[in-house]
Amino acid sequence: MSKAQRTAIDALMRQAPFDGTLPPDRLRKEFEAQMTAGPAPAGVVVTPSILGGLPALTVEPEDGAATGTILYFHGGAWVFGSPDTALRLTAALVRRTGVRAVSVDYRLAPEHPFPAAVEDGLAAYRDLLKQGVAAEGIVLAGDSAGGGLAVTTLLAARDAGLPMPAAAVAFSPGLDATLSGESMTTKRDADPLFTREDLAVVFGYYLAGQDPEQPLLSPALHADLTGLPPLLLQAGSNEVLLDDSTRFAVRAAAAGVGVQLDVTADVPHVFQAFEGMLDEADAALDRAARFVTDALART
After folding, report:
1. Mean pLDDT (whole number) for 109-113
2. What gap in Å lies between CA 267 and CA 236, rounded to an integer?
3. Strand, helix or coil at 65?
4. Cβ neighbours around 47 below 10 Å, total
5. I want to staple 83 with a disulfide (CB 3.0 to 4.6 A). Which of 57, 198, 239, 244 is the partner?
């Protein structure tokens, strides 16, 4: 793996670190512009769609899809982001797995605080089941807040008595709204993007004064994780959110869940988004795709 690539990505991100004090509208515009710049992802067909009453993008391989569906949730701290901003990452999974993905435009805070996003995740999953898609043919996936939403959608679906999907994949998931992980301090200098203080501001929009120590807000600390399907969590060692993944993985394993914790050294938050620029990103996406295809093959 290339140290020069890692150094270049770190420098690039430090040129424009996240500023949580910006108004939500500006955060949305700047993130959208950043993540949608450049050519459209190759090798996929993208179609606007509706799932669970929500706008969505259906992303399929150009040469036809294999059996299975990835239900994808974009990142953005529950305040910004969209299926468009996550399109490159979604397309990367689709190309590697050969299965279609449906990326959902769930409601955002502050207009729609917790539990709106979880309600939307559950509605999208219910709709797939209602359409006749078998639970064992579905994999939930997401990045950052969307990775957390993939997990909390699982919890909401289990509590609603719905069958569990084949598996879930979470890239640098947000799993602790209390922001209490030691990595918030120990990784402060290593993380080129986030600080606890900035995250506290944007998480505050989602919390809207509610207690963060709830299972669907901080599952790494408070959720009953029994009965969840196999999970893959990928994170970088240079991110303040690292302990969200490490603590969740320990608790999931203790609850009897098959969980893989995949931490890549010296890379930042959602480093997989640097596909084609960072060897570690391509390698991690390859591992995630194998996990997805293996999970679907077991059904």
Report:
1. 98
2. 5
3. coil
4. 11
5. 57
CB 47 within 8 A of CB 83: no
Query: pLDDT tens for residues 75-99?
Result: 999 999 999 999 999 999 999 999 9
Q: How far apart are CA 207 and CA 113, in angstroms?
A: 6
Q: Which residues are catalytic?
A: 144, 239, 269
Domain range holding 25? Answer: 3-297
- Whether the pLDDT of residue 35 is over 90: the answer is yes
- For residues 30, 35, 38, 40, the Cα torsion angle rounded to the nearest 10 degrees is -130
Strand partners, 72: 103, 141
Three-state DSSP class for residue 155: helix
Identify each DSSP E strand in the chain by its residue range. Answer: 44-51, 54-61, 66-73, 99-104, 138-143, 167-171, 231-236, 259-264
Q: Report the number of distinct structural domains present in the chain.
A: 1
User: In whole angstroms, what is the distance from residue 178 CA to residue 217 CA?
Assistant: 8
